């Protein structure tokens, strides 16, 4: 289908060797009369689709990094193995996208040089495996982590305008090899079909901004106040989670609320702990090996005080930031113990820091007693009740009667005809749209969304008008004085028109030049 080759023998050999796994010079190729067949074109199309498929997965991999610590915790609870699986994900994705990208670039260069696209069978097998691996990754994401599809949709509000520019740029660059293919191809039908598909794709891209929406497309004077920061178990990137050190580090990050989890020991002492087992965040396997798998509530307070709640943080390094800790911070982290709720309340009281907590486990047979004991500690601590944000739904009416000053936070959206108005909600960031956030803000309902770690996500929620966010990365979000980007609608409209016009002119130039 292609006319005789149009580049030097050395270039042809350098391109054909990695793509076709053959040392064939341009002269030999011409003598043998090898040409790009429809079969070869179908494999090029498959290569292009695999590249796009892998590119989309790379985008997803970057987006889900915001929530990947949850995945690491899930794997640990299932397999008792701690590893930063985000590194495995990124390395594997980088290998796949690099491989498909190199093959695609080679194919495009071969087309520009007029060389045949004879993809070697080894590459064909590897491309099929690449497609299967990525398909399996998407399938697993949909089955085990379906909420990340919502995260991807939210991310388009942050990246949509830039993805549009990138897509237009990439498709514009394809004009050169496409023009070469069209001018060299003898089949009129195929030439018309390819040209129509390309034109349809470009028209769709040129008009794509009509469907792109983002809360950050607004005037500067319309930007809502910066959301307050809620420390997720304190500052878990800087100190062992749910410890007094983590609480103090969160205060240094200008966090307004310390979010934690409370359990009650066998002898009635509320303490800070997220997991139902102690294995992830303590050395319980070394101190009490025969009881390591028991529920945290099965231990009395004396036993809990014997456990080291900080060394795991230095050994497992749950976040990359652990490596940059100072010697003093490392020493302090190694000395951490499980704090009681009373100790946390005392620290919060003196620093004017609010404390928000869940009471676990909710399905415990003695849960009502847990509520009463916890409430008793709060009342005895002397902390102003407006600094206490109560999350547990169980026996909430009893709490309202015994401590009417406590601020109640609901883990659900408001419903019609409620007996009492909902003033505070605490929800996953995937569960509220920008429109709902704006409506809640207009109705003076405080919205806290969790867990927000990446600046791009914080920027979108900031532009939407969210009241506060729960974060692991308070030290990062603290430094943000402005969303990553903010564009007036008129400016975005101008960028859109300029990008489309420049792209159109370059495509016309490419076809004229190649002719």
From TrEMBL:
What's the protein called, per UniProt?
GDPD2 inositolphosphodiesterase
- Topology of the protein relative to the lipid bilayer: Multi-pass membrane protein
Recorded superkingdom: Eukaryota
InterPro entries referenced in this protein's UniProt entry, alphabetically: GP_PDE_dom, PLC-like_Pdiesterase_TIM-brl
Going by the UniProt record, its keywords in alphabetical order are: Glycoprotein, Hydrolase, Membrane, Transmembrane, Transmembrane helix
**One Pfam family this chain carries?**
GDPD
Q: Report the subcellular localization.
A: Membrane
Q: Give a Gene Ontology cellular component term annotated to this protein.
A: plasma membrane
Name a single GO biological process: lipid metabolic process
Could you tell me which species this protein originates from? Nesospiza acunhae
Q: Where are the transmembrane segments?
A: 41-65, 85-113, 125-143, 163-183, 190-212, 493-514
Family assignment from sequence similarity: Belongs to the glycerophosphoryl diester phosphodiesterase family.
Domain (GP-PDE) spans 227-481
Record-level Gene Ontology MF annotations = glycerophosphodiester phosphodiesterase activity
Q: Which Gene3D superfamilies match?
A: Phosphatidylinositol (PI) phosphodiesterase
Q: What is the primary gene name for this protein?
A: Gdpd2
């Amino acid at each position: 289908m292609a006319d005789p080759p149009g580049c030097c023998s050395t270039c042809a050999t350098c391109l054909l060797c990695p793509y076709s796994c053959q040392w064939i010079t341009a002269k030999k190729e011409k003598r043998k009369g090898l040409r790009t067949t429809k079969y070869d074109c179908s494999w090029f199309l498959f290569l292009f689709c695999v590249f796009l498929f892998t590119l989309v997965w790379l985008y997803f991999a970057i987006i889900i990094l915001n929530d990947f610590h949850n995945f690491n915790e899930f794997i640990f609870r299932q397999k008792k193995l701690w590893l930063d699986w985000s590194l495995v994900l990124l390395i594997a994705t980088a290998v796949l996208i690099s491989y498909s990208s190199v093959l695609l670039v080679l194919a495009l260069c071969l087309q520009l040089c007029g060389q045949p696209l004879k993809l070697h069978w080894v590459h064909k097998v590897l491309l099929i495996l690449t497609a299967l691996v990525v398909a399996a990754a998407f399938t697993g994401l949909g089955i085990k982590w379906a909420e990340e599809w919502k995260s991807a949709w939210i991310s388009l509000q942050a990246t949509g305008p830039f993805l549009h520019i990138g897509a237009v740029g990439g498709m514009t660059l394809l004009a050169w090899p496409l023009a070469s293919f069209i001018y060299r191809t003898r089949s009129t039908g195929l030439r018309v079909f390819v040209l129509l598909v390309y034109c349809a794709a470009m028209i769709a891209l040129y008009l794509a901004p009509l469907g792109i929406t983002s809360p950050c497309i607004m005037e500067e004077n319309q930007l809502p106040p910066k959301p307050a920061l809620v420390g997720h178990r304190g500052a878990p990137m800087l100190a062992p989670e749910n410890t007094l050190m983590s609480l103090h580090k969160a205060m240094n990050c200008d966090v307004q609320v310390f979010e934690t989890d409370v359990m009650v020991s066998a002898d009635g002492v509320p303490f800070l702990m997220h997991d139902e087992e102690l294995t992830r965040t303590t050395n319980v396997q070394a101190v009490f090996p025969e009881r390591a798998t028991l529920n945290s509530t099965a231990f009395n307070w004396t036993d809990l005080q014997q456990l080291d709640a900080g060394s795991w943080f230095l050994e497992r390094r749950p976040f990359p930031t652990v490596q940059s800790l100072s010697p003093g911070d490392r020493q302090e982290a190694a000395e951490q113990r499980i704090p009681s709720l009373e100790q946390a309340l005392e620290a919060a009281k003196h620093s004017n820091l609010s404390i928000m907590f869940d009471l676990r486990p909710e399905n415990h047979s003695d849960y009502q007693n847990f509520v009463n004991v916890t409430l008793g500690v709060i009342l005895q601590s002397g902390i102003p009740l407006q600094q206490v944000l109560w999350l547990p739904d169980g026996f909430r009416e009893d709490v309202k009667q015994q401590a009417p000053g406590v601020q109640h936070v609901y883990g659900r959206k408001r419903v019609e005809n409620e007996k009492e108005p909902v003033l505070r909600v605490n929800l996953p960031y995937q569960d509220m749209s920008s429109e709902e956030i704006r409506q809640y803000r207009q109705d003076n309902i405080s919205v806290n969304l969790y867990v927000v770690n990446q600046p791009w996500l914080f920027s979108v929620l900031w532009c939407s008008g969210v009241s506060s966010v729960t974060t692991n990365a308070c030290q990062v979000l603290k430094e943000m004085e402005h969303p990553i980007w903010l564009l007036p609608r008129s400016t975005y409209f101008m960028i859109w028109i300029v990008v489309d016009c420049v792209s159109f002119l370059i495509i016309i130039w490419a076809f004229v030049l190649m002719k």
